[in-house]
Write a structure and sequence with these properties.
Shape: rod-shaped
Mean pLDDT: 88
Number of strands: 8
Strand content: 25-35%
Number of helices: 4
Strand order of the largest sheet: 2-1-4-3
Largest sheet: 4 strands, mixed
Low-confidence stretches: none
Helix content: 25-40%
Structural class: alpha/beta
């Protein structure tokens, strides 16, 4: 079996336009009216540009005389610009212990503030070791303190919950 010819993506151009009659718009954006496709192709060749099917579902299809290579280049540029502006929110993790010291807590909160300002989510992991599991209320108090400290900067996305030996809370920037 012979392979199928590759399908072209994008608008139909020049000889690929199937309709017998088209509504033509010239390179200046002026409507030329309805005419046979052959005449529209001749007009496009005369101006040294391509005949591009802009609206294939219209009756008759709307075709425009323009430089197809330039059109594709501008579309690629627009897509690249949109990708550049796109911001992905990463999930950063901060690990703490229930008996964290004041200065250590301040260092962690400074890092969390930086993460929230750059638009990232923060996963706060509180690790219990050994007999600390008997004092889970201390861990919950620490999580509440974090929640209160970052109340105006971030919102809680996942409430503190215990998973095995660690308590997890996820916060997202406001």
């Amino acid at each position: 079996m012979p392979a199928k010819p590759p399908q072209k993506s994008g608008p139909r151009i020049n000889e690929d336009i199937r309709s017998p009659r088209v509504l033509l718009i010239d390179e200046n954006g002026e409507k030329q009216g309805e005419m046979p496709t052959v005449a529209a192709l001749d007009a496009a060749r005369e101006s040294g540009l391509d005949l591009v099917e802009v609206s294939p579902n219209a009756d008759p299809p709307v075709c425009k005389i323009l430089d197809y290579g330039k059109l594709r280049f501008l579309e690629q540029k627009k897509k690249a610009e949109a990708r550049k502006k796109q911001k992905t929110a990463d999930l950063k993790e901060i690990k703490m212990r229930p008996n964290i010291d004041v200065h250590d807590y301040e260092v962690k909160t400074k890092a969390m503030t930086r993460f929230f300002e750059s638009g990232d989510k923060v996963k706060i992991t509180l690790r219990f070791r050994g007999r600390e599991m008997a004092h889970q209320h201390l861990g919950m108090e620490l999580m509440q303190k974090v929640k209160v400290d970052f109340d105006e900067l971030a919102k809680v996305e996942l409430e503190p919950k215990l998973e095995g030996r660690q308590m997890i809370m996820v916060m997202a920037p406001r």
